[in-house]
Each structure stands twice: as structure tokens, then as C-alpha cells.
Write a structure and sequence with these properties.
mainly alpha
């Protein structure tokens, strides 16, 4: 069978998300440091915010790796796992959008963009999985 089922738009989105998440991580880390210096950041809230950011980064690496691998090898299992991990990433992004100790306008903007890319990526993943099955 010579039909290529892997999704080029999805692969491009994985690449763009990898770059965007690097920016997102560094910006969020810088803002947490900034907030801890400028605002009276409760010490018992700083560690959890940082921990969640690092957990999110680990999830993101796994999510993008599995998604990219599943798409390129046209296998639904890694792509499905990537989709499942996206749920965790969405929850963490919503945390940084709504529930973290201090939410700046920049937090709102970068998390909204991240959530939009997760949404688009999820639609493309489901479409690709459907094509593979």
C-alpha cells in the first residue's frame, strides 16, 4: 500500500509547538521569578508553581515525541498516548491561566495561544488516528 496516511499539517504543528513551548516555558519561568521578586509570593506557593511548570515540560517532551513518532510511523497507539497526555497538558495550562498564585496579562495571552494549539493539534490527531485505523 503506497498511500501516505501521516498528516503533514499535524507534523508541522508538532514542530511549531516544540518551538512555542520552549518560548512558553522560558517566559513562564521568567514570570514566576519576576512575580517572586515583585509581589509578596508566598514561599509555600512558589515551589508548587515551579514544580508544575517542570512537570508540564516533561509531559510536553513526551507528548510531542509520541505524537510525532505515531504520526510518522502511522501508528495509532503512540498518537493516542500523545492525545491522552494532551489532557494533562491542558489541565496544567488552565492552572497557569486561572489558578496559579498571580496571573499576569502575559500569562493569559501565552496560555490562550497554547490552549488553541492543543485544541487544533487534538483535532488533527483524532483525524490522523481515524485515517490509520
Amino acid at each position: 500500500n503506497s498511500h501516505q496516511l501521516s498528516s503533514l499539517p499535524l507534523q508541522i504543528l508538532f514542530y511549531v509547538n516544540g518551538i512555542y513551548y520552549t518560548f512558553y516555558f522560558l517566559a513562564t519561568l521568567a514570570m514566576i521569578v519576576y512575580k517572586s521578586q515583585v509581589f509578596s509570593y508566598p514561599d509555600d506557593f512558589l515551589a508548587p508553581d515551579l514544580t508544575l511548570l517542570f512537570i508540564m515540560a516533561i509531559l510536553e517532551v513526551l507528548r510531542l515525541h509520541l505524537g510525532s513518532k505515531g504520526n510518522l510511523t502511522e501508528e495509532e497507539v503512540p498518537l493516542g498516548l500523545s492525545l491522552a497526555i494532551t489532557v494533562g497538558s491542558v489541565i496544567l495550562s488552565v492552572y497557569f491561566l486561572v489558578w496559579q498564585t498571580y496571573v499576569l496579562k502575559a500569562d493569559v495571552i501565552i496560555n490562550t495561544v497554547l490552549l488553541l494549539t492543543y485544541g487544533l493539534e487534538s483535532v488533527l490527531k483524532v483525524t490522523a488516528i481515524t485515517a490509520f485505523v
